[in-house]
Amino acid sequence: MTAIRPGSQPPTAAPDRTWWLIIVGIITSSLLMLTQEPTWRAALPGGIAKFLTNPLVGSLLLTLFLSNLLFAFRWKAAAWAKALVFFGSLFIILPWAGRDNTAIFDLAIQIGIFAALALGLNIVVGLAGLLDLGYIAFFAVGAYTWGIFGSGQFAKILGYFADNGGPVGGGLRYLLGGLLLTILGAVVMSIISKVKGKWNTGQRWANFLAIMGLVAGIIMSLRGVLILMSPQAQSLMSGVNPNFFWLFLVLALFAAASVGVIIGLPVLKLKGDYLAIITLGLGEVIRVLANNLSTYSNGSQGITPIVSPTVPFMNAIAGALGFSPDQYNLFFLYFLVIAIIAVIILANVRLDRSRIGRAWVAIREDEVAAQAMGVPLMQTKLIAFATGASFAGIMGVIFAAKQTFISPESFILTQSTSILSMVVLGGLGSIPGVILGAAIVTILNISLLPSLGEATAALKLPQQINPAQLQRLVFGTILVMMMLFRPEGMLPSARQQRLMHEDDDPSDNETPQDSLKHSAVEPAAEVYSPGTASIKDDQRTGGAR
Amino acid sequence: MKRAKGNVGVRLIGVVAALLVGAAQAQTAQTTIKMASLSPLSGPQSDVGTQISNGARLAVNEYQGQFAKLGLNLSLQPYDDQADPTTGTAAARKIIADSSILALVGPLNSGVAIPVSVALAPSHVALVSPSATANVLTERGLKNTNRIVPRDDAQGPAGADFMLSKLKAKKVYMLNDKTAYGEGLAGEVEKALRAKGVQIVGSEGTEEKSNFGSIIQKISLSKPDVIYFGGVYSQVGVFAKQLREKGITIPLVGGDAYDSADLLSIAGAGANNIYFTTIVAPASEVPAAKPLAALYQKTFGKPIQGFGIFGYDAAKVVLQGMLDAARSGKASGQAPTRAQVENAIRRVRATGLMSGTVQFNSVGDRRAARMYIMKVNQGKVRLETTLDVKAPRP
Amino acid sequence: MDLSTLGPFLVGVITSGLVLGFVYAIIALGYTMVYGVLQLINFAHSEVFVTGAVVGFEIFRVLEPSPMNGYLKLLIALIAAMVASGMLNVIIERLAYRPLRNAPRLVPLITAIGVSLILQDVIRIIEGFQGRFDLTYKLPPAFNTNFCGADSSCEALGTALTKVGISLQIKEVIVVAVSLLSLALLNYLVNSTKLGRAIRAVAQDRVTAGLMGIDSNRIIALTFLIGGALGGISGVLFGMKFGTINAYSGFDPGIIAFTAAVLGGIGSIPGAVLGGLVLGVIQNLIGVTNVLGSILNIANLQAIDASYQRIGAFLVLVLILIFKPTGLLGRSNTEKV
Question: Fewer CB atoms < 10 Å away: N or C end of chain B?
């Protein structure tokens, strides 16, 4: 059990590292630029240049450089030095290196996307304690929201309805009928949700039918709108005006949040691992629907090309800085991702300290107690689900714009577990932690592990032990090792740390902590949730045999 | 298991030796140029992806001498896309950053090839996909994108023609694997069949890799006279085995992803009455096939299969293009630019391939290809007939 | 279509679903037993199951030329697979889960995912050294013949069965028989032995069980051994039924089997079996929904074909859990306050 110990003690009076920070910042930045900037590289002696351009060395230097951001955040140093290193790295060095090597931009954007996803999942799993294994579905919703409208796909859909939807006038009937059904469903649901305590069978049925009615109503009204719009098919052949992108960022937020609510409504009454497997299943449902409903999503063939907006002043800046026109898009997306991440972090911090944030934590710690204290369970959980989903929705739009192509194979189940591993690896409930977790996993998967294979390609290793083929093995080993040696995550939140070590306080429990930690019998802690409670025996979700 | 252990030991020694050799090789100074390969090297599709990079490696070994004469040191740089579009794009950006890479063989899947080609296009890194068949890949008209396999709307009608003329199909059951490849191909076949008035008694996709119980029940209920399954050999083999076990012996037809000896071993006794269309000529037609197979076996310790040959052919097309570009340059030891290579590949005329002569049209599809229709019967693959297909546009 | 074809058709669909369901059930037991004692979704169980399948493949391959009785080969394969998978599961528990007994529950979950990734590559590497990727079972020829087929002593029974729509191969009958036998054994073990009582006690309340003198670490290890052995059996059965496996093919059946365990009420042994059978049948029924739709002339049903098989299992799970939140046979328990 000693594995849990490291990191549990908060560092006492760390030395001031202002100059260290500056020095490390300068060294790692120069090393990165030496590997990327062609003119600098050319000035180096051949042997060193060869060493620096080795894919593995390059990738390690990039990782080292990115850890600057972490140092600037964590080390005790003067504020000016922190700001200098942090913003200097993010706004000057990284774009500069990205100009010479777009792989760095790609990696940074991908880290940003996954960091936002991890932050969203952190709200669901880390704060509210609801284990969601199908989180990638919301990302898919966002990606398809922009993918369909930002490409010729919407025109195809309208074309389909022009051919098969009947007369345009029928659309109005669909729309009105659909709206009526939606309102009816919503009213019935809101009435039922007022019922306190356990539902009887009749109420469950009524709730179920109301949800079905709501979904059917929404589908019907959408169909009505599509039929009404079908004559416009021709004018939308290359997608809507790219500047609608900004609107769709907001729309995707709402779309993903609504899907979160629709998925959440029937299943959030469930607990723990029941919720986990259902969310896993519903995540698959979204992917399979995207694969099967080819009228809307173009099925397995995917949607391409998806446009990005052009922002003239960003392009002008990029042009002035010597970026080539094909890099403008990445340049723009990079700063957009940074801006959105900043907003998401801000939202997270505010939520964490708000009334709703405390309600989430209360639910995570003890549902029954929270309910007794007047926290509306369903509503609070739904808000967590919807908030988490909305972050994924926004990032889905950016993903679609960056890739210019989306297909269901980008939204497979393993992506969900990979995001979950980012959250747990970084530290459940800790905002800097999950960002770090996202960065670590993304760098490993996209940069470090592949470069291991690339660097050894010239060595003609036997196929079976070629590192290029062992990505899962290496990633799995890292995952297991990190969990074994730092189960609370890389940067655990203060709250979480207290929680994990609440047994350390003898007044909390009558048994001294050491004998507890080393005995096979562990204390009956008072927490219940799949996210943070330790494995216990006395509280079960299902029957036991 | 003991033998396997011994192998590990021997191989580890090999690794150390290879490390030393690699370090020694790094010393020789010459202009280095590289061809990249991009295919899934890890994960569930790694088997097929590795065959492609292996095929490419053989082609590189073959061409190294010719490039050395021009003062160029050629090598292969394999990248892994894990069959994931995002990972593929990240790899594409790395390829752009390595200025010694002039062109690319791959990717395996259309879903990866589409975003990768977009990312590579501004840097003029040409790619030749050995296996991506989606129409839209070349339909977008990118200058850098080419492929050696006929696309869905060329390969599909060829399969449909064969089913009509040789198998006299009247009722066909269509299946696909719900991937861009299988569904795209089966969709084109179905379109062509419907145009000819053939009755389609069923058309569906399945992601199942082992349980085909309900599909087989439906097939025995609707009594088609031919089944078309757009999918990859590993899935189709299992399906064929279960189909034959239930006593259904009607012909099973598919595309070039059936081209693997593993189809026979997976289907076992079910490997009967299976037909597939492919561009790879059978060994009896091409004299060079036998030595290639022997070389592959010797180098990698595994028999060569369809995707290995696709990878080899695609790599040879790329290398021929690079060679043409290098020859047109003036000074010896001077590498051609990526744009030159891109143009040269589009104009290339590569001969002596396992799939005949490759010439590209204006969008990077083969102008003409001969499709071989192979028949699997009694544990043997035989040439049934040939069909010439043309690119849908000049 | 009339009833005389539809009846046998549906019977055939349901029978093949049941056979599939038995395989799911045995896999699901591995999940549910581990869940019972640790409340851990053992994501690595799918690879434990594949390990069993690979060991079974190797045994059948090595024994292929030997003139030994087919059933003896099967027995050897089953025992070898049980030992290998059981030991593997115990090792995983010892190295990856036991050090995390007191950690938050998500931590061992992530570890399990990591172990699963490691095992996938390890299995591929081991088989890759012999130039293999897809492993195809080489069964004794007798297993591939029809059950009570032509020229067998029970031909009359076979014809009668075929008439009602049941046509099984010997290997499918073996799958069912072995499943039933292992279920009976497990039932005896859990309900009528001292060890079983200890397992139930640990699953019920580890603290109290400890006070009663039960070494819970030992019992957990033994539970992993039993769960792994069941994984080994299911691996061999899966390989026999479907013929081909590779290092990555545990993922899909693993997910479905875990769904089955939850459907039946996670932690409940009869629940896992029921869940497996229900999912097996439902998956096959969803696969033929379009046929039923065309018979009943309902346009919307005709769009539901085999491509929905996978998610059908999940939708059924959602529906059942809405009405029975603890699964089919799960005991609901009131929370202590």
Answer: N
Flag whether B1 is in a domain: no
Quick check: C307 and B242 CB within 8 A?
no
Q: What's the start-to-end Cα distance of chain A, in Å?
A: 29
Torsion angle of C-alpha atoms B81, B82, B86, B89, degrees rounded to 10: 0
Q: Is A243 on the interface with C (CB under 8 A)?
A: no
CA of C22 vs chain A CAs: smallest distance (Å) = 20
- pLDDT, tens only, C300-313: 788 888 888 888 88
Asked if A530 is an interface residue toward chain C (Cβ–Cβ < 8 A), one would say yes
371-400 of A, contacting C, C-beta below 8 A: 372
The pLDDT value recorded for residue C265 is: 87
Summarised one tens digit per residue, pLDDT across range B143-186 is: 999 999 999 998 899 999 999 999 999 999 999 999 999 999 99
pLDDT on residue C165: 83
Together in a domain, B236 and B306: no
Which whole number is the average pLDDT over C57-77?
Answer: 93
Of A201, A420, A533, the CB nearest to C105: A533
CA distance A522 to A503: 10
pLDDT tens-digit series, residues C75-108: 999 999 999 999 999 999 999 999 998 888 889 9
**The pLDDT value given to residue C21:** 95
pLDDT at A396 over 90: yes
Q: Where are the domains of chain A?
A: 12-100, 154-237, 509-539
Nearest CA distance, C121 vs chain A (angstrom): 6
Could you tell me if residue C299 is inside a domain? no
pLDDT 10s digits, B293-347: 999 999 888 888 889 999 999 999 999 999 999 888 766 678 899 999 999 999 9
CB < 8 Å & 24+ apart, contacts of A324-331: A324/B122, A325/B122, A326/B121, A326/B122, A326/B123, A327/A98, A327/A99, A327/A102, A327/A105, A327/B122, A329/A401, A329/A402, A330/A98, A330/A102, A330/A105, A330/A106, A330/A109, A330/A402, A331/A95, A331/A98, A331/A105
First to last CA, chain C: 59
C residues 310..329 contacting A (CB < 8 A): 310-311, 313-315, 317-318, 321-323, 325-327, 329
The answer to ipTM > 0.85 is yes
Residue C333: pLDDT band by 50, 70, 90 thresholds?
Answer: low
The CATH code of the domain that includes B301 is: 3.40.50.2300
Of C111, C128, C210, the CB nearest to A483: C111
CB proximity C35 to A under 8 Å:
yes
Which chains have at least 3 CB atom pairs separated by less than 8 Å from chain B?
A, C
In a domain, B134, yes or no: yes
Residue B3 has pLDDT above 80, yes or no: no
Of C187, C235, C292, C201, the C-alpha closest to C56 is: C235
Q: Is residue C77 part of a domain?
A: yes
Query: Which pLDDT does position B6 carry in this prediction?
Result: 43
Residues B183 and B270 reside in one and the same domain: yes
Give how many domains chain C has, as a whole number: 1
Helix H segments across A75-200? Answer: 79-88, 94-100, 102-121, 136-149, 153-164, 170-193
At residue A510, the pLDDT reads 37
Residue C61 domain flag? yes
Full domain range(s) for residue B316:
30-150+286-360
